[in-house]
Write a structure and sequence with these properties.
Radius of gyration: 20 Å
Shape: globular
Distance between the termini: 57 Å
Largest sheet: 2 strands, antiparallel
Number of domains: 1
Order of helices and strands: HHHHHHEEHHHHH
Helix content: over 70%
Strand content: under 5%
Number of helices: 11
Oligomer: single chain
Length: 301
Amino acid sequence: MDYGWLVFGAVVVLALFLDLFVFHRHPHKISIKEALLLSAFWIALGFAFAGFVYYTRGYDRTLEYLTGYLLEKSLSLDNIFVFILIFSYFKVPEEYRHKVLFWGVFGAIVFRAIFIFAGLELIKHFHWVVYIFGIILIVSAIKLLTTEEKEIHPEDTLIYKIARRLLPMKPHNADGRFFIREGKRLYATPMFLALLFVESSDIMFAIDSVPAILAISKDPFVVYTSNIFAILGLRSLYFAAAGVLPLFHYLHYGLSFILGFIGVKMLVSEFYKIPVEVSLLLIGSAIFLSVVASLIVKKKP
């Protein structure tokens, strides 16, 4: 077995342990300062692992890892908007939001493994799947470009209706618990519903992000590790950026460009291989320019 996987697994388990039992041992409202420090920690960890990738796999795989990491980090910004709406709808107290996101990320680690390795196998055995992935990304780019305001109506979704039918519910969050027991009956809380929607939103998000990262690299180790290290910092990024992200009203243009570019990259891959360096430069530039434009040009009321 490739010992790189063992190192990766050990780092992730240790990081999750520190996050749950050291950094957030006691539920509390996470301040901007704490969120920024934690974000710096997760970003530093992601770049430190890039050094390990360089040592074990060389320059080309490292460049793919960094491009995949930046791609996933950029696209995850769009997911933060959804988290804001979910927490608001289910009235999850701020001190318990990290708990929901922690288990949401834990589930994402499992689901991303399924999607990524399934995607790699599909491409390996049916190369034409690449074109389907490319079309999916272009359609997603157009949808993102034409939809500025995000809305969420959980009560209209199938997952909400099934959960309400199968699980007896309590209308309060019960001091941060997902379930409470009264007598012999077990009741779910709104926090559990919020977790379900965080997980389901990540699954929907993976429909875009997994094909996108498969356009950058076909190395399972590079694809999965870059994806997971970007996801690990999503919780602290949420607390650091939730208040300011709505100010970046042109961000969706940058994300739309990224999805469209990666979609085109997949469609032309049989005829022309766009260098990874170009992908890295364009992804970084798209996010930078959309943020700068948001700060310079004020949104019309």
